[in-house]
Structures are given as structure tokens and as C-alpha cells.
Amino acid sequence: MRIVIYSMLLLLLAIQYPLWLGKGGWLKVYEMERQLELQQAKNSLLSLRNAKLTGDVKDLKDGTRAIEERARVEHGMIKDGEFFVQILPPAKPPETSPKQTGPQ
Asked: Is the residue at 95 inside a domain?
């Protein structure tokens, strides 16, 4: 009778192994779901980036405002008849360090 019980217990463990640790087991499914969530988050960020780049390409193809803006910002270019004015922040007065007193 004992042999039957041990053999049934061994059979039960043999059946449980693929369920938990096998190729399609719960641990693999959990890991795959986690990887899927990470990839979906990455894909959503990339789709937002693609939408922004598509808008930039459309602006550059259709109008001149985007080209002018880039030329002004990136290269400091100005149109004929325009004046470039640069406003600098006020200069800070030099800091004075306290005189050290001590034996000389």
C-alpha cells in the first residue's frame, strides 16, 4: 500500500513540474506578460515620437515658417531689413571676500 501512495505522489509531482516550470508554465507566462507590458510602454513612447517627427516633416515640406524658425534658432540667421538685438542679463557685482584677520 505504501508503494502505491509514494508512486501516486511521485506521479502528482511529475505532472505539476511542467505546469509550474515547463515551457508554457506559470513562471514563463508571468515573465512574458511583464516583457509585453514593457514593450507596449516602449512602443507608445516611440509612436508619440513618430507622430512628432511626422508633424515636423509636414511643416518642413508645406510651409516656410518652420524652416525660418530653425534657421533663426539654430544658425542665428536674420531676414533682409531685420536687426538682431541681443539683451544680456545684468552683470553681478564681484563678490568681496571678508578679510582674514590673524597674526602676520
From this structure: no
Note the pLDDT tens digit of each residue in 52-88. Answer: 999 888 887 887 887 788 888 888 788 888 887 878 8
CA distances from 49 to 58, 64, 69, 72 (A): 14, 22, 20, 24
- Whether 86 maps to a domain, the answer reads no
pLDDT score at 53:
94
Q: Is residue 82 part of a domain?
A: no
| Cell 531676414 -> residue | 79
Percent of the chain predicted with pLDDT > 90: 23
- Three-state SS at 41: helix
**Phi, psi dihedrals of residue 33, rounded to the nearest 5°:** -65, -40
| Domain region containing 29 | 2-75
For residue 61, what are the contacts with CB-CB under 8 A and spacing of at least 6? none
Q: Which tens digit of pLDDT belongs to each residue from 12-44?
A: 888 877 777 777 778 888 889 999 999 999 999
Grid coordinates belonging to 32: 512574458
